[in-house]
Amino acid sequence: MPPDFLISLLARYSQQPPSIRPHVTLTFAQSTDAKIAAIPGKQLILSGDESMQMTHWLRSMHDAILVGIGTALNDDPQLNTRRLPPPHNLPRPIILDSHLRLSTSCKLLNNFRAGSGRRPWIISTPSQDPSWISRKDALEQAGANIIEIPSLNGRLSVPAVLQSLRDRDVRSLMVEGGATVIASFFSASVVDTLIITTAPTLVGDNGLGYTLAGSHQQFTLAHTQLLGKDTVTSWVA
Q1: Would you give the end-to-end CA distance of the chain in angstroms?
Q2: Do residues 222 and 9 make contact, with C-beta atoms less than 8 angstroms apart?
Q3: Which residues, in sequence order, are CB contacts of 228 under 8 Å at separation 6+?
Q4: Residues of the chain with pLDDT under 70
Q5: Which fold is adopted by the domain 20-236?
Q6: In sequence order, what are the residues at sequence separation of 6 or more whose Cβ sits closer than 8 angstroms to the Cβ of residue 13?
Q7: pTM over cut 0.85
Q8: I need a labelling partner for 66 at 20 to 30 A (CA). Which of 57, 90, 130, 163 fits?
C-alpha cells in the first residue's frame, strides 16, 4: 500500500470536479545544497531505497508522468513502477521534446515494444523541416505517439500542454523534472501539490540547481516524513 501521507495528500484529487487541466504534482529529489542534477552527461542519484519506493507509489497514483527532454537524454529513465508488487496502475510516460531529440532506442520505447511499458507520448512543436519530419516518422515507427502543440515565443506553453493532456483524459499528472521543466511549471503557477525529497548529501559546484522565480503561487506545508535517511516534505497550493 502507498504511504498513508500520500493517500491523504492526493485524496482531494478524486474529490474535486474535473477541470480544464489535470491536477499537477511536482516532485523531485534534491541534495542538502539544493542540487537536483549533475552536469550534463552525468547521472546524479539522490534518493535512497525508501524514498525511491515512495516515488514509485506516487507514480502509481497518477494517470501520467512527465519529464523534459534533457532528463530523458541524460538519465534514460523508465518512468514506471517496477519497484511495486502487482497489481498497480502503470502511468503514461510523457516527454516534452520540442525538437524530437528522443532516441528511438531509449528505455521507454524499448519497454513499450517489449510489452512491459505503456506507449510514450512525446509533446513537440510542429515543423515543416525535413529533419524534424524524418525524426517524427522514426519515433512513431518505434512506437511513440507524437502530440503536436504550436509553440509560444519559441517554447512549449505549459497551459497548452496541460489542456491537451486533459483533452486526452489525463486527470492527474506527476511532473519529475528536470530543472527547466520545474521552472516552467512554477512560472505558469499550475502546481497543485509539491513533494520534495531532500537527501543528506552535498553536491557542490558539480550539480545543477533550480529556480522558483516567476511563480505567484503560495504553498502550505502539509506533511514531513523521514524515509530512511531522506526527508520528504509535502506542500499544497
Answers
A1: 25
A2: yes
A3: 48, 49, 50, 51
A4: 17-18, 40-41, 214
A5: Dihydrofolate Reductase, subunit A (3.40.430)
A6: 23, 171, 172
A7: yes
A8: 130
